[in-house]
Recover the amino acids of this structure.
């Protein structure tokens, strides 16, 4: 049997955490949209993107089980922060909600591209999936900008906070 490559193990652990975090962010946004904020269009868009994230997350969930990889110990914290970020950003308005997607996807774009560059032909199937998922994420980013995401003024601070937080979560989730 092929020995599990440590690098690949870290890739799957962090991607699982990230995709699960994405599902949680959208769940937080939907929570706001089902209670305080009324915007049927936005809700429909977010529900659709959430379905993609669910598909991504389920793929990595299955990989974790198949390869007997330990998920990150921080899942409960990421769940909480994800829902909080989604809920909070949506309360601030549509621009903030969409910026949340744009900021996260910009980090993930780079993150997945890095992994794609490092994966060899012995992980062909995994590589194919990550290439496909990255395309989905880029599509989400485009939707976010089309729907009003902006980095003007105070939004630039929000963008920096979300990006720094996402990168920190990535570093932690690879290792622990
Ligand atoms: Fe995703
Ligand atoms: Fe996404």
């Amino acid at each position: 049997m092929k020995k599990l490559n440590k690098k690949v193990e870290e890739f799957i652990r962090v991607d699982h955490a990230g995709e699960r975090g994405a599902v949680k962010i959208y769940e937080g946004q939907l929570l706001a949209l089902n209670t305080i904020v009324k915007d049927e269009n936005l809700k429909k868009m977010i529900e659709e993107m959430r379905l993609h994230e669910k598909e991504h997350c389920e793929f990595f969930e299955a990989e974790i089980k198949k390869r007997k990889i330990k998920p990150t110990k921080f899942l409960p914290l990421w769940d909480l922060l994800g829902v909080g970020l989604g809920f909070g950003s949506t309360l601030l308005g549509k621009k903030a909600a969409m910026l949340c997607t744009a900021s996260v996807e910009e980090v993930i774009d780079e993150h997945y591209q890095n992994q794609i560059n490092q994966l060899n032909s012995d992980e062909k199937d995994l590589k194919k999936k990550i290439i496909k998922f990255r395309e989905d994420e880029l599509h989400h980013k485009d939707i976010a900008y089309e729907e009003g995401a902006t980095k003007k003024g105070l939004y630039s601070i929000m963008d920096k906070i979300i990006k720094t937080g996402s990168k920190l979560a990535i570093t932690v989730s690879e290792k622990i």
